[in-house]
Design goal:
116 residues, alpha/beta
Length: 116
């Protein structure tokens, strides 16, 4: 409602955790600008990968105009869990352009690992 013409949104880890904590059955129903979003970037911690996937699904399913999604996973969660998470996302939303990366509190620059 505050920024109705936003086409790009980046959620750092603390903001993403707030999104996950406030997610409900309506998801982002109150986010009026969601139809105008073309690009979303989020910094994720995969503490509970199934809950994070549900939150990502809620967001992506409601943002119908998306063309590009960039997800950065915290370095502590890189491995099979991260790989499975990425595979599930790509399989569910194959039409999107995906960028995957790693972030850490200790590393000042994000590391992009995969662009699809």
């Amino acid at each position: 409602m505050v920024f109705p013409n936003v086409s790009s949104l980046c959620l750092k880890s603390s903001a993403w955790l707030e999104v996950e904590a406030s997610m409900n059955q309506e998801g982002w129903g109150s986010l009026d600008g969601r139809k105008g979003l073309k690009r979303i970037c989020a910094y994720l911690k995969l503490g509970d990968p199934s809950w994070t996937f549900s939150s990502v699904a809620c967001m992506l399913d409601q943002c119908v105009g998306l063309s590009e999604v960039s997800l950065l996973v915290h370095v502590r969660h890189v491995g099979n869990v991260c790989h499975n998470f990425m595979s599930n996302c790509i399989a569910r939303w194959p039409r999107l352009k995906w960028r995957w990366g790693i972030w850490s509190d200790e590393i000042l620059k994000d590391i992009w690992i995969k662009i699809l």
